[in-house]
Amino acid sequence: MTALEDAAKAIFGASPTAIETLAGGDISGASRIEFADGFSCVAKKGPLIDREARMLEAFQRLDAPSAAVVGTVGDWLFLQDLGQARPFSSATWSALAETMAPLHGAGAGRKYGWEEDYGLRHIVVQNQPRESWVEFWRDNRLLCHVPELDPDLGRRVTALAERLEDLIPERPTVSLVHGDLWGGNIVWDGATAWLIDPCACHGDREVDVATLTVFDTPPPQFFEQLDLAPGWQRRLPVYRLWMWLIHVRLFGSGYRVAAERDLDQLGF
């Protein structure tokens, strides 16, 4: 019996009758498992699944469409099976804006950050709460990467960080931020855009808007539906840069050009 079968039996009292490896998952893979009674769910294995579960439960408490946690055991996380994702259409983006709506302002009264750090492979995602959003983004999303970057790229990131208060707000509305929101972490079933694989924190919701422009091209009506604060376009490269730096560290220098392009756009 495999480790997955053992974990499933511990949660459900029975072994799965079918296991299907799901496509995608550059950082952590997943499998759909089915039982004799027809019930199915998705299983993920990883060192921080308990933290991912708590993030997903935060989305659930807000009634934001997201994969529900079915159970955890050891280093296994079992999630609601959202079915086969469909290709994106214009309707997807409208539905995604509706999915994101409950997250806006959902951190009212909280500091910027999260109760615990997270991780993407070997990279620690630092989440120490701060009263200042500028300080949080500077220290936990930009400067934390500099020691691991090429010196020239690190110098440019540091220069940006030193001027960050001129580029992003000190105290934006505290929202629940998905943190890694791109097409691969959205399951579109034709009616609802479901969120999966969060890297959550409380912060500026424009972070999610920025990550959606890393590999995807949302239509203008999507941004209009979100009703973003004036100047949001100028802030996207600041927030997008964190995603590029993560990719440089995870996947290599091929992403450096994208990071430098946004630094050029920002004048650093």
UniProtKB/TrEMBL annotation:
InterPro entries: Fructo-/Ketosamine-3-kinase, Kinase-like_dom_sf. GO terms for molecular function: kinase activity. The keyword ATP-binding does not apply. The keyword Transmembrane helix does not apply. Keywords: Kinase, Transferase. Belongs to the fructosamine kinase family. This is Fructosamine kinase family protein.
